[in-house]
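#structure-requests
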Amino acid sequence: MIRFDFSGVTDKLLGGRGIAVSDIEAIVPALACAHETIMAARAKREILFYDLPNDNTMIEGVITLAEQLKGRFKNIVHLGIGGSSLGPKAIFQALKDPLHNISAEPRLFFMDNVDPELMGSILENIDPRETLFTVVSKSGGTAETAAQFMVVYDLLQRTLGKRCHDHLVLITDPEKGILRKLAVADGIASLSIPPEVGGRFSVLTPVGLFPACLLGIDIQAMMAGAGKMAACVLQGDVFKNPAYLYAAVHFLALARGVNISVLMPYSNALYDLADWYRQIWAESIGKRHSLKGKDVYAGQTPVKALGATDQHSQVQLYVEGPFDKIVNIIDVATFRKDVPIPHVFGDTDEMGYLAGKSIAGLIRAEALGTKGALIESGRMTSHISLETIDAGTLGGLFMFFEAATACMGYLLDVNPFDQPGVELGKQITFDLMGRRGYEGKFRSSSPVERMVIEL
């Protein structure tokens, strides 16, 4: 279903700027060390995402609850931020009709920011009596999700009284946190996020699976696809493991100053997948400290682009700008819909050559054209080919990128599963909003002098 072609980064096509097979062979010891670290942590259940496809209890729990709620609601509003939202959004965009919320029910809305205009608009356009709210926070203490939940809970109480709990599903830690306490105390329906799975790796837990299941997406097929990919990406041989090869190529590219990784799907359905990739790549490998505690300031900036749209906004930079990017193109062999180009204006040079072709054929040609232009210009380019976009393929893509991220982190000698750089900002926010125990965090942070120009 998925094919990874890395020839566009090699010296055979790029010359001196490319990566030789011998370069990859030279880091085989480092890859073996990364593999051993992953396997040891997996054996101790410190890394669990590889094994989620085999967690039948979790999958059956999601399906059972979704079946109980099926047909009861016209709207689903998903409350969560970061990894609690990006994965579910990627599934929704990839596997449902682009205009699903206009043409079908239940409609799915993502309250994934504390922008008051976004939140106000969603709440103004749904009837809470016809709406299920899924609240996703592993800790329960995420400020953004807590604030959203407080607003929604008050709205449900005022509208529905004692029946408000019937319109909630809490997705959180199985034992700890305020959401788990509320679920137990008030009998609110809930699902558990495995404690060993961090937010950005949680798409194949109830975080992503439950809203997908509510929309009728075949989550068993998705997990089967992820399981097939897991078997592939748990191999130690880099030349048999596409995820390790993806990581190795990016590691070697970064050593050559290629500090930007572009994910460019030639499919609107996969654009939110690129958004999900931005988080997992940035938050996992962007670290100040190595595993040994040294300052390393590691990382590679992920960028999302959309083919063919961004051929007209970004590709000029990619082809002729700095040699600081590796462009990872995703294309699709068979689209689920196609639109024929009719035989009109056939007598014109400008349009006639398109007559009788198809829109799918055009976007596939655009992908190959961009790939060719990048390689001819000496730019590192990888190519991920999909037979089609379906639940199994999407599950496989999630597993592929998660495994590649874990490997890349250990190649860089950083912890791919923590996010210390996010914590200070959270603590300052808590101080500004008056949370006990965080007094002084704003004032103790580095002073910032304002330079203001008023227009």
